[in-house]
User: Fold these one by one.
Assistant:
Number 1:
Amino acid sequence: MPNTLIDLLKLRSSTTSVIEPLLNQWMMKGEDRPYLHPKVLEYTRRSTTRWSTKGRFAASTAGGCQRKGVLLFNGVEVPRNITPRSQRYFDNGYLLHLRWHSYLLWMSEDPDIPLESLGFEQEVNIPGWWVRGTLDHKIRVGQETFVVDFKSMNPWYFSNLSKTGALAGHVRQIVIYLKAEKIRKGIILYENKATQEVQEFIIDLDRELLNKSKTHIRRMQSHVRAGTVPDIPRECKAGEYEGKLCRLKNYCYPDPEED
Ligand code: SF4
């Protein structure tokens, strides 16, 4: 029996390559093409670096810090640039998505590749949960439909994926998309930032995990209704939540130098 959430998540995700072998097959043809698919180019004209989660919970807030989820729901201003380096980090993640959307769209148009793109950057929502977000890509391979989520990852975390399995927050996020889209399977595709190696995890729509997310979201909804904000959780460690610098740090640990 799994003892911890991590054990549970490891059991619920399996590493089978669905996309990479087909991508390799397509790339080995070496056909000339623009870097970005025209549909992706069109999408870039609509997308900006501004975003807000006012009045909704992002799928990524279905776990983790509830204070953050409620603050974002309340529409607090999120500093986009903690540092220029972090801006480059976000920009790099955006560009990774454009590249992978293009790969899947080009593959979908190739009659030799049995993969069909069913759309990308699609808005999904679960009204009763106040959850609204954007899934990365939806594909069909054979008889199976998948929601695909792309993640770039630093080499250290990437080399540990075989031990850790897909990361907990990423699994929770994709399971929310599966529920919203009534699809049974998802793929989290990790790309190593340094080497462009790929590792895929197949994630099943998991009722137990979904119930945990539902409880988490219900608690955040109670705070929104009561006009309260959850306390700072012990795990926060002055804004270093889950190994990352939280962009809402200033709302919880105001700079004493500032007025
Ligand atoms: S700084 Fe900590 S408590 Fe505040 S929102 Fe971020 S993770 Fe949550």
Note: The mean pLDDT is 88.
Number 2:
Amino acid sequence: MNLEAPAQDNLEEGQETGQEADRNVDASREPRGFDPTRPVDKKGRERQRYSDEELAERNRTMADLQRKIREIFDRIDGEAAEAAQIEEGLKTSPAVPAEFIKRIAGDERGKEIISGIVQKNFNERWEEWGQHEIQKTESEKEIIKRVEDVVDEMVVRWGGNPAPLPMENVYVIKEGSFATMEWPGVRGGCQGRRGKIAVERANDSRYEFANVFGHELFHFKSYKSVTSVMVGPSERKFGLYRSGLRMMDWKNDPASPDKKEYFGLLEEAIVSECGRIAMKKMVADPSISKEAHANERLKQWVIRARRRQGAPEEMLAAIDREMDSVPEAERVMREIELSSHEEEERENRALDLVDRLYKEGKIGMQPHRALREKMYGLFSRIVRESNGRFRNQEEVFDQFARANFTGNYLPLARMVESILGKGSFRKIANDFADEGEGKAA
Ligand SMILES: [Zn+2]
């Protein structure tokens, strides 16, 4: 019996790579300097790359897809009814925090088998990441604890019951390790069904470490359920069925390459936005505050230099929102300060430097910009059509974050359908379905 389906895990890029950025820079038309509004997001581009033929093929499969979605949404109602029974399997797994996997679905035999596997996976060292592990420094351990406090506080506010993450389930790995696992450009990953997180140590930046770890931790803290499916007369596979809003369609073979993860890209966008909010809370923390201050100062120099060049306000807002960190920010800030007493000159130097590092892929950027923008677009539509029920996107985001961390779709589905109309929740599930293009991102 094959009990191990290929992992359905979230592997993340901590920053966009230089190659991606370069491909989209049209130097002849762009004003000089750093501009994160240029389309550099891998997903944003991939999604526009379908040929007419592929589009036609996608349309042909749409009827089939709609049927599958209908079945899955019928299941949502079933889930709510079953909710009272869901903790059962967990009580036999005392070593796994009861909050980690909220629900074990499937037939009775499947539940029994899975609860054992979940516990084993959670406790066991995982060598695929373990072989790249380097010893955590004291300051990394401190950051891990501090970030977890901030993240838990947010998750609780959204109604979640966050599972503690044991220190040994966090792997700090050597820079470049993900590339050897065929995940180039990735800085951190969350192995959802094993309850493991890996973060590459890069540039000795505490700030970037906190940033990448925080993002992965939100994946870990998202509502989780697992299920098993029979994929043959005696073959059973098991895997995550839910991670936050992300809902895997396991009906057939979980390893099937054409499987879909409804809301998958929305979960990614929600987690990214949560990470952004968490870092705003973290910047005052003594573990990273000096570096955060230097990053902020460099960013404000860049913004002022770009403003003097006449860059539009929305671009400046995007720099403010998307630019995270500069390698060796404290040293770089001091050097620029010493290089001139003129603020304008400092601003220009900062812009030149950041622009060059950005093209080399070395500026830490908020992940998944294109996905977040797609999500903000949805939120602004909801605000617009809500007849005053929502005043701003943040209020809508709260509802989505709540569903992501409690696992409860129903209040969200009702809210969305009462504003955007019947069937709109299913449409969102499909519009934000992860069909594989999100895998390496
Ligand atoms: Zn992610």
Note: The CA atoms of residues 140 and 206 lie 7 Å apart.
